[in-house]
Amino acid sequence: MKTILIKFLIYAVGSLLLLNGLFYFQQARMVFFPLRTLDQTPREWGLDFEDVHLETSDGARLHGWFIPAGGEHPRGTLLFLHGNAGNISHRGDSVRIFHRLGLDILIIDYRGYGQSSGSPSEEGLYTDARTAWHYLTVQRNIPAHQITLFGRSLGGVVATRLASEVRPARLIVESSFSSARDMARSMMPWLSHLLVMRFDFDAARYIRDVQVPVLILHSPQDEIIPFALGQRLYQQARQPKTFVRLHGVHNYGFILSQPAYQRALQAFLDSDSGKPSS
Fold this sequence. Notes:
Blueprint: H1 2-31, E1 33-34, E2 50-55, E3 61-67, E4 76-81, E5 85-86, H2 92-100, E6 103-108, H3 122-139, E7 147-152, H4 154-165, E8 170-174, H5 180-187, H6 203-207, E9 214-218, H7 227-236, E10 241-245, H8 253-256, H9 260-270
Parallel strand pairs: 1-5, 4-6, 4-7, 7-8, 8-9, 9-10
Antiparallel strand pairs: 2-3, 3-6
Helix pairs in contact: 3-4
C-alpha cells in the first residue's frame, strides 16, 4: 500500500510539473495576439496624423501615430495604450471619439505589434509606455498635467502601471482587470492555484499608487474580462475615482454604450474636482 501511495505521489508531482512547464511556456501565446499588418491609417478615418518612431531604453523600435486635435487650442493630449490583440490600425472607432473630444492623441504599437520591432513581454510593454511618455513630455515638451493616460483591456494595466510612476492629469481604464492571477482564477478556478504564473499584470497593486483622478469603465456583459475584476480594480483605487457601467461585449461596449460613453468621458475630462459622478 505504501509503495502504491509513493508511486501515486510521484506520478501526481510529475504530472503537475509537466503541466506547469507546458503552461508556463504557452502563457505568452495566451496573452499576446499581435498582428503585423496595418489595415488602415488615420487618413482612412478622416484624420491628419504624423508617423512617430521611438527607440526604447532596451533597443526596441516602436511605431505610432500622433493625431492632432485640430484647431488652435486642444483641450489636452491623450496617450492611448491599446489591448492585447491586433494593432493601432484597429482602433479607429475609439480614436475618433477622443478626437471629437478635442484631444491630441498619441497611439503606439507595443513591441512585436504592427511596425514595432521585437516581441511582446510584460516588462517590455511597461518600457514601451514609459518611452511614449518620455516622447510626449520631453521631445514634444507637453506638460505632464496636460496628458491623460487611457488604456483598454490589457492596455489598462499598462496605463495604470505608468500612472503609478509618473503624474499625468488623469487615468482612464476601460474593460480591464485587477491582475493576471485574478484572470486565471476566473478562467480556471481550481487549477489556477496549482499553476506558476509567468505574468503578474498586477493593476490592483499599481493603482494604489496612482494619485490622480481615475475613471474606470466596464460592462457587466463583458464575456472576456469579468465585470467583477473591473470592480475590484476600482475598489483598490484612491479617491477621486469614478466608475461607469458600459453595455455590451468586451470589444464593442464603448460603441454600444454611445452616446452615454462619450458624455462620461467628457464629464471626466471637464471635471477639476475629480469627484465621482456615477
